[in-house]
């Protein structure tokens, strides 16, 4: 039995270091692309390629963790992510940068894997607090990451920044290796204890059972025959004949037992191994195909829709926020930086209180989700019509807190409908929805800004109210059971 408290703290540390390394790189990468001869457009395409790959790799890696285990998947992803950043540190060609970002796009999923592991460690009622704290530690990295990255870039250039970022993933690899245990479930036969019967276990158990059974049968049968034979013939034999016959029979018995045990073990081992390997391959393929199951999508599409409608306004607001502050209130870049950092600090602080907020609602997550969505619309509207900077900052602070709570509510609704062997895949699908929002939001924000200066915020209000209307008309179901909704309908 593992120490849940120690595992949780390690996951929080992994989440923080993960985004610390990423946040050191983000703002410096476009400039590095230009330094090695690339254009601004090429730098944008490289960034979009990373997001595009994650659209597809997130659910695949998530389902991989369901099938092969969280720890094994996380170790593999952390190692390859570290390799990608070390490659980026020695990149002097655009093609090398491209290779590095492709590898990172395929395997940089430690945030989702940590959340999947927390879902295994905590019950439904405890997850809100765990997710809130994890999000707080992860978000705190964006407060320090750009600052650390800037100082490292001045001291040793972009290569040093990438090397340090890669080292953070190596440290995470060590933390995972030393303190994170494996939690594996058999997708064909879910076990509430989390134990999975592997091919090696089947091989070992079957071989020993067959060997033990065969040996005892042979011994019993041979002994019986010996007794029968000896009993009927002993009166007709001399003492020396009896001893000689008994010795011969015992030697034959030993030879038969040894030969039979060896043959049974060899034959059974190969047969079991071959059968188990084909079954594992079949179950793995079938497990990945469940990502496209129509029943699964039908029972999760409402939450995915709400997630998309509510994430778009937040991303559009962040995209336009600096321009809005400068044009409307005449703030400088330094002031905007302090405001952004202050908002992040409030979000971090709010994350530690999410568990208490959920408990104050008696774990009525759908009702809390609805109230947070209404609050998001009010705050966006307040940002548009704020008479001065102080009022605007008050609305921004409340917006950050309500957004943090809404994200946790969305994840709770998804996981409440999942079986344990679906958590990784569904978490990956949720990340894909967020990635689509990140790709769509800047375009929508640009078009809306061309129509009106506060266009992104106004459009955000409309999208948020649309989500509120959907939730009010059809409140999302919150199932505490461990059997997914689509399994119940079958």
Question: Can you tag this structure with a few keywords?
Answer:
single chain, 490 residues, mainly alpha, 84% helix
Unreliable stretches covering 5 or more consecutive residues: 186-216, 218-224, 226-239, 481-490
Q: Roughly what fraction of the amino acids lie in strands?
A: under 5%
> How much helicity do the residues have?
over 70%
Shape: globular
Structural class: mainly alpha
* Largest sheet composition: none
H/E series, N to C? HHHHHHHHHHHHHHHHH
Determine the number of helices (DSSP H or I, runs of at least 4 residues).
17
Residue-averaged pLDDT:
78
> What gap, in angstroms, lies between the N and C termini?
34 Å
Strand segment count: 0
Computed Rg: 31 Å
Overview of the molecule:
The chain is mostly helical. The chain is 84% helix and 0% strand. It contains 17 helices and no strands. The two termini are 34 Å apart.
Strand-helix topology:
Elements lengths: L3 H23 L2 H7 L4 H29 L1 H20 L4 H14 L2 H12 L2 H56 L19 H35 L5 H51 L4 H36 L3 H19 L2 H7 L4 H20 L4 H28 L6 H29 L3 H19 L11 H5 L1
Task: Please outline what is shown here.
This protein has 490 residues and is an all-alpha fold. The protein has helices at residues 4-26, 29-35, 40-68, 70-89, 94-107, 110-121, 124-179, 199-233, 239-289, 294-329, 333-351, 354-360, 365-384, 389-416, 423-451, 455-473, 485-489.
